[in-house]
C-alpha cells in the first residue's frame, strides 16, 4: 500500500510539472528587480522623463523612491494613507515625508497613490523597457550574433586609432519616421545587440555615449549591418566618425569623404529600408560641411560628447 501511495504521489507531481506553463517574458521580468522597478515607476508622472528612475532602478524600490522622489510631478499626485501607517497625506511640500512613506511601501495599497490625468510613460523608462524587451524577444538570434566572428566586410570598416577630439555643438536630431509594421515583421530589421568591433576603444566609448543610446556597450545589427548605436525613442541608427578630419589639408579631406561616401549611402539605405533614420556623428564642423557638400541628403550631427 505504501509503495502504491508513493507511486501515485510521484505520478501526480510529474503531471503537475508537465501542466505548469513556461514563464512568460512578463513573469521573467517581474523576477528581475530592475525591470520590476521600471514597470512600477512607469505608472507615475516624472518631470525628468524618468531619467532618475533608470539611473536608480537597480536599487531597492524604497531607495529608488528616496533618491527620485523630488523628480515626481507632485501637482498630479495625491497620496492617501489607506493603511493608517503614515497619517493623512497630501502632495504639497509640507507632506513630503508622508508622501514618501506611502509611495515607498513594499506593496502600495489600492487607492494609496492617485494620479490625476493620463500618464505618458517617461521616455527614459520606456527606452529602458524597450531595450529589455528587445534583448529577450529574440534570444536565439542575439546569442548567435554575439558569438559570431566578424565578417570580412565588417572588418574592413574597423576604424583607425583617433586622437583626442575637440568639443563641438550638438545639432538637432531627426524626427521619428512613420511606423511600418511590415518592416518590423522582417527578421533582418529586428535590432540585435552585438559585440563592438574590436581594436578602437576610444571610438567605441564615443559610440556608447550617444545621447539616449539604447544599447551602450554594444553595436546594433540591423539589415545585415553593424551600426554604432541605436536610439529607440526616435528610431535612429548611428555611424560614428572620430578621426581628426579637421587637421588634414582640404584636398585630403575631400578625398577621404569621397572614399567613404559609398558605404555611408549604403548604410543610410539599409536603415531607411527598415524604417529607421540614419545619422552620421562627426567631431568637427569642417567634416560636416564637406559631407553635406558631397551629399546634401545625409543627416550629419556634430558630437559634443566625445
Automatic annotation (TrEMBL):
Protein name as it appears in the record: DUF6310 domain-containing protein
Residue ranges of domain DUF6310 in the record: 182-306
Key words of the record: Signal
Statement: the UniProt record of this protein carries the keyword Hydrolase: no
Keyword Mitochondrion: no
UniProt biased composition (Basic and acidic residues): 156-165, 180-189
Annotated region (Disordered), positions in chain: 143-208
InterPro entries according to UniProt: DUF6310
Signal peptide start and end residues: 1-19
Amino acid at each position: 500500500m505504501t509503495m502504491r501511495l508513493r507511486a501515485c504521489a510521484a505520478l501526480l507531481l510529474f503531471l503537475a510539472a508537465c501542466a505548469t506553463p513556461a514563464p512568460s517574458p512578463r513573469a521573467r521580468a517581474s523576477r528581475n528587480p530592475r525591470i520590476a522597478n521600471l514597470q512600477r515607476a512607469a505608472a507615475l508622472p516624472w518631470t525628468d522623463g524618468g531619467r532618475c528612475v533608470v539611473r536608480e532602478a537597480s536599487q531597492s524600490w524604497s531607495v529608488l523612491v528616496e533618491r527620485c522622489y523630488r523628480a515626481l510631478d507632485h501637482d498630479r499626485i495625491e497620496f492617501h494613507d489607506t493603511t493608517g501607517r503614515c497619517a493623512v497625506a497630501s502632495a504639497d511640500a509640507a507632506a513630503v515625508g508622508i508622501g514618501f512613506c506611502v509611495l515607498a511601501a513594499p506593496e502600495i495599497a489600492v487607492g494609496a497613490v492617485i494620479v490625476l490625468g493620463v500618464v505618458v510613460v517617461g521616455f527614459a523608462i520606456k527606452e529602458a523597457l524597450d531595450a529589455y524587451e528587445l534583448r529577450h524577444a529574440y534570444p536565439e538570434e542575439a546569442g548567435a550574433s554575439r558569438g559570431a566572428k566578424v565578417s570580412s566586410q565588417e572588418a574592413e570598416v574597423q576604424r583607425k586609432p583617433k586622437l583626442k577630439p575637440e568639443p563641438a555643438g550638438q545639432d538637432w536630431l531627426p524626427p521619428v519616421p512613420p511606423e511600418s509594421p511590415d518592416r518590423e515583421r522582417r527578421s533582418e530589421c529586428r535590432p540585435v545587440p552585438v559585440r563592438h568591433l574590436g581594436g578602437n576603444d576610444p571610438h567605441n566609448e564615443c559610440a556608447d555615449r550617444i545621447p539616449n543610446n539604447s544599447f551602450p556597450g554594444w553595436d546594433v545589427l540591423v539589415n545585415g549591418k553593424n551600426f554604432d548605436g541605436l536610439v529607440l525613442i526616435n528610431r535612429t541608427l548611428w555611424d560614428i566618425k572620430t578621426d581628426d578630419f579637421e587637421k588634414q589639408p582640404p584636398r585630403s579631406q575631400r578625398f577621404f569623404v569621397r572614399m567613404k561616401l559609398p558605404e555611408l549611402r549604403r548604410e543610410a539605405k539599409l536603415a531607411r529600408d527598415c524604417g529607421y533614420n540614419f545619422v552620421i556623428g562627426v567631431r568637427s564642423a569642417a567634416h560636416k560641411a564637406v559631407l553635406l557638400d558631397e551629399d546634401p541628403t545625409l543627416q550629419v550631427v556634430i558630437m559634443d560628447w566625445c
